[in-house]
Design brief:
There is one protein chain. With 985 residues, the chain is α/β, with parallel strands linked by helices. Helices cover 55% and strands 9% of the residues. The strands form four sheets. The protein has an eight-stranded mixed sheet, with helices on both faces. Strand 12 and strand 13 (848-854) form a beta hairpin. The chain is extended, with a radius of gyration of 41 Å.
Length: 985
């Protein structure tokens, strides 16, 4: 078409385009022949006539033509014709193509035209009507071609061609994700795509997040592992999610990659990444051995391998601990407990101090050893040294240091030391000085008086000294660090500033005065003042506070203790042992009420108020010159007061959390610390239910009492071989005469006493509080309703009984459970057996609820009866943690006979009790394991169920003699008393 003719035709379409066409044609004239110009004009007209807004595409081509002519006439026409073909259904793709081409010419990227056009044409041929998709492709292709290397561009276009062969959704998704990061490694993704398209897409989906979570060099190092896992049959989504959830340093990342290359299965690799922050990645030999054990477990069963690499199985943690030399407190607690009693002649509990405890209450959140005067706290695990022997020695010395406070007078003089500390203007600094000096004194006393431990103590001190690497910069900071190092037997280090060196030497000399065998806590108290003066020299204490931030890091094996709490607890212990209730009854009862959290709101009493109250009792009550209250009245007062003391010592222990293992039969191992049990001590109360039950069931309670009264022992039994008594033991008397005549000194214990024989029983009644216990008890005279659909999501926690009564006033299963334990409680109170009533429910492994209605130490009073009456249906039935916690409570009673009676209406179930919520097997097997653990600890257990199908699963959970299926639920109270007799008689 002639230029002039084309111009006239364009003027009828768009005058602006015609003007631009004429200007461009003038520029091209002389650069090419008339035939090329004629073809060029035809292309311009075709683009303009292609459709709505065709003029915009034409203007873009005209602007590009002046650059294209420099690349040759063939390129000028080829680009125009290609762009025109893109305008088949919309001119937008053609316009974007022309503009993008211009951008690439401007940045000198003419080497990528062919690949970009080829991929774009393939999209156009397959999805010609998808104008927005074609336009998006050319926009992105232009951007990538302008900013990446030729190698990357070729890899990306190759990926586009591969995605075109799949459906449009994958191609669209690929183009969208290609914009997510400017540094996507396209050459690697091309390799990944050759192994797995889905693996490539998954990596692309998570790459931007991976960049934020991982150092750039780690992403490069991870590529061989990614390729390996892409060859497998399992998806990579979990693996990439795990990587994005972590934060790795460069060194951690390198070690992680080395470990991943030892694992072939991406499922196991995902678990390794999830637990990587808890693993010693830098210890290559440890990791290799641990991974080998994990692969063996996975070869037997993949679930076992996943639990192993997630650090969820007991076997996994045991292997890791052994390889690391780690020692767990739970494994040596019994030995340390015996060591404690042998050392100080009194029972002090030993508890773990970590914020995550293994079946221990999370009520003391510490990381270091310590004591509150009643309990010695030790770390949950020790891995400070490379082997288990040394880590166990750490436990021994840490424990010994805490016991030394009892042995060498620290706690005996705690009131004196506290008064001395509070006399200083800077109480915090004075307390820090005293603690450091007293730590030093008791360690030296241990070395003097327990030669067998001296070497280990010195070794711990030397280890602590070497590892104190933080050098303070302030005067007080440096001198406090000198005081700590002097307490460890160190001298004055070279880093001390010259102007403070003399003060440092004086502190060192003062500390060494406590190293003699005669040093007492009074000597420590006397040294507070000279040390305080050295540390505060030149400081105006009226205007400046010594900041706690300058205090040195504590010595690990010495730990830290709360002096105020120790004072309260020691005062209570002293009162428990020595206090004789005297004086005006009303006054003493008011004091008991103050300190008894069962009768007063302890949470509203400030700690200082409590301390003052205890101090008043200790100092103002004259015990020596007052007559004791005798008889039943005095005994009752003593009992109430002692309960108050125990309650105060345990103040604030409401709604505690415990963590318990759970048995997974699929991996044939425990899942460590898998369940969180919440012990709820304050629950709803319904005393009216108890009153009504006792009124309605008079005949039943009489029968139960008659049955249990048969368990009462003979009032008296004969005890032979005592120094005085009611009768003479004739056999021993003859022996005495013979010994005298033979010239030997005889044993004078020839009398017989009649002593009262008491029962030593602790029983815990554990009630199922699941939602199904809300079902009304079946009335055989009424028509049954249809059973709920077990597949209905809304009915997941509904009752399992097939027939439900239409009578809205009928008695519910939970009511029968409560009535049974109420009647048993009244009878046991008369019998004198120690008992506890608890309920359990919850929802999921992190929310197991354990309701403590009546603890062993609590009396059966209005409040505990009300809590039993207030038991109500909740949610699901996760039995394992509840049984383990109940067993733990029973073990604490130290009674000779310990009995656990579980009353339930169905099999154990919870929405996450195993992977398949429709399977009963996981919950049944865990419950069976929990009951086995209970028996191994000497607890007799018995399961009572009103589930008609109970035989189907109870025979798996319990031996035949340890369960009963009650066909008529109304017989539950009577059967319960019979079971109790059989267990405790």
């Amino acid at each position: 078409m002639d230029i002039a003719v084309a111009g006239e035709k364009l003027s009828g379409l768009n005058t602006g385009v015609r003007q631009r066409f004429i200007e461009t044609a003038a520029t091209l004239t002389g650069l090419t022949d008339d035939a090329v110009l004629s073809d060029w004009a035809d292309v311009c007209v075709d683009i303009t006539e292609a459709g709505w807004h065709g003029s915009e595409a034409t203007l873009a081509y005209l602007a590009l033509s002046e650059s294209l002519i420099q690349l040759g006439t063939a390129r000028l026409l080829a680009v125009g014709r290609f762009g025109c073909s893109l305008c088949q259904y919309s001119t937008e793709p053609g316009k974007i193509y022309f503009e993008g081409y211009q951008s690439l010419i401007n940045v000198g990227r003419t080497d990528v035209f062919h690949e970009m056009e080829t991929s774009g044409w393939e999209i156009h041929e397959k999805y010609s009507q998808a104008s927005s998709l074609i336009g998006d492709y050319f926009k992105l292709a232009t951007h990538i071609a302008s900013n990446r290397t030729l190698k990357d561009i070729l890899a990306w276009t190759a990926l586009v061609k591969q995605m075109i062969r799949n459906d449009r959704g994958i191609l669209t998704r690929f183009i969208d994700l290609s914009r997510s990061s400017e540094s996507i490694p396209w050459t690697f993704l091309e390799q990944l795509q050759q192994e797995s398209i889905s693996g490539c897409m998954t990596c692309l989906e998570y790459y931007a997040n991976l960049e934020r979570a991982c150092p750039a060099e780690l992403l490069i190092d991870l590529q061989p592992a990614m390729l390996r896992y892409a060859r497998g049959t399992h998806g990579l989504t979990g693996f990439y999610k795990a990587l994005t959830a972590q934060r790795f340093t460069g060194a951690q990342g390198r070690e992680l990659v080395r470990s991943l290359l030892d694992i072939d299965d991406v499922r196991l690799a995902t678990c390794l990444v999830n637990s990587s922050q808890e693993l010693p990645l830098e210890e290559r030999s440890v990791m290799q051995s641990w991974i080998t054990e994990g692969m063996i477990a996975a070869n037997n069963r993949i679930e076992a391998g996943e639990a192993f690499f997630n650090l969820e199985s007991a076997r996994s943690r045991e292997v890791l601990s052994a390889l690391k030399g780690q020692v767990h407190l739970v494994d040596c607690k019994r030995i340390l407990q015996l060591y404690t009693e042998a050392f100080c002649g009194r029972r002090l509990d030993i508890e773990a101090v970590s914020s995550e405890t293994d079946g221990e209450a999370v009520d003391v959140l510490r990381e270091l050893p310590g004591t509150d005067g009643r309990v010695v706290y030790l770390p949950e695990s020790a891995s400070y040294f490379p082997d288990q022997t040394q880590n166990f020695i750490f436990y021994k010395i840490a424990l010994l240091h805490q016991l030394a406070f009892f042995e060498f007078g620290t706690f005996a003089g705690i009131r004196e030391s506290n008064r001395a500390i509070r006399s200083f203007q800077q109480v915090g600094l004075a307390r820090q000085i005293f603690r450091t000096l007293e730590d030093a004194r008791v360690d030296w006393q241990l070395e003097h008086k327990f030669r067998g431990a001296a070497t280990a103590i010195k070794s711990q001190k030397a280890f602590a000294l070497v590892n104190r690497q933080k050098i303070p910069v302030t005067r007080q900071g440096q001198l406090l660090e000198i005081l700590t190092q002097a307490s460890l037997g160190g001298g004055v280090p070279s880093w001390v500033s010259v102007q403070w060196r003399q003060a440092a030497k004086s502190l060192n000399s003062l500390t060494n005065r406590l190293s003699i065998v005669e040093a007492t806590v009074q000597d420590t108290i006397a040294l507070i003042e000279p040390c305080f003066e050295l540390l505060t020299a030149g400081v105006d204490l009226t205007t400046n506070d010594i900041e706690a931030e300058i205090f040195p890091e504590p010595v690990i094996f010495r730990g830290e203790s709360d002096t105020d709490q120790i004072m309260i607890n020691l005062a209570l212990m002293d009162l428990e042992e020595t206090l004789q209730i005297t004086g005006d009854e009303e006054e003493m009862l008011s004091i008991a009420t103050l300190i008894d959290p069962k009768n007063a709101e302890v949470a509203e009493i400030r700690k200082g108020d409590l301390q003052d109250a205890v101090g008043m009792l200790m100092t103002d009550l004259d015990l020596d010159g007052v007559e004791k209250i005798e008889g039943e009245e005095g005994e009752e007062l003593r009992r109430k007061f002692n309960e108050g003391l125990k309650g105060l010592a345990n103040q604030g222990r409401q709604n505690l959390e415990y963590r318990y293992d759970e048995w997974d039969y699929l991996i044939e191992d425990y899942r460590r610390r898998w369940c969180t049990l919440h012990e709820i001590r304050e629950s709803d109360e319904d005393p009216d239910f108890v009153i009504e039950t006792l009124r309605q069931q008079k005949h039943l309670i009489m029968g139960i009492r008659q049955q249990l009264n048969m368990l009462k022992p003979e009032l008296l039994r004969k005890i032979k071989g005592v120094l005085d008594g009611d009768d003479i033991d004739l056999e021993r008397t003859v022996e005495v005469i013979v010994e005298r005549k033979s010239g030997f000194t005889p044993d004078e214990r020839i009398y017989v006493q009649r002593q009262r024989k008491d029962r030593d029983v602790a029983a815990l009644f554990l009630l199922d509080m699941s939602a199904s216990t809300d079902d009304v008890i079946e009335n055989p005279d009424q028509t049954a309703k249809e059973q709920p659909d077990p597949d209905d999501e809304d009915d997941f926690l509904s009752g399992f009984h097939g027939e439900v009564s239409d009578d809205p006033t009928g008695k519910k299963i939970i009511d029968l459970e409560k009535e049974s334990v109420i009647l048993m409680s009244e009878a046991l109170e008369e019998l004198g057996d120690n008992f506890s009533v608890c309920g359990f429910s919850g929802y999921g492994r992190e929310q197991v609820e354990y309701y403590l209605c009546k603890d062993f130490e609590e009396p059966l009073n209005h409040r505990t009866r009300g809590r039993i009456g207030g038991i109500k249906p909740c949610r699901s039935t996760r039995m394992g943690p509840a049984i383990r916690h109940a067993t733990r409570s029973l073990m604490k009673t130290e009674c000779r006979v310990q009995v656990l009676i579980i009353i339930s209406d169905g099999y154990p179930q919870d929405f996450d009790y195993g992977k398949d919520r429709n399977s009963r097997e996981y919950g049944i097997m865990d419950t069976m394991k929990a009951l086995t653990e209970s028996r191994q600890q000497g607890v007799q257990s018995f399961c009572l169920t009103v589930d008609p199908s109970g035989n189907d699963y109870l025979r798996s959970m319990c031996p035949d003699a340890q369960y009963m299926v009650i066909q008529d639920i109304r017989q539950l109270p009577d059967e319960l008393s019979k079971v109790y007799r059989s267990l405790t008689g």
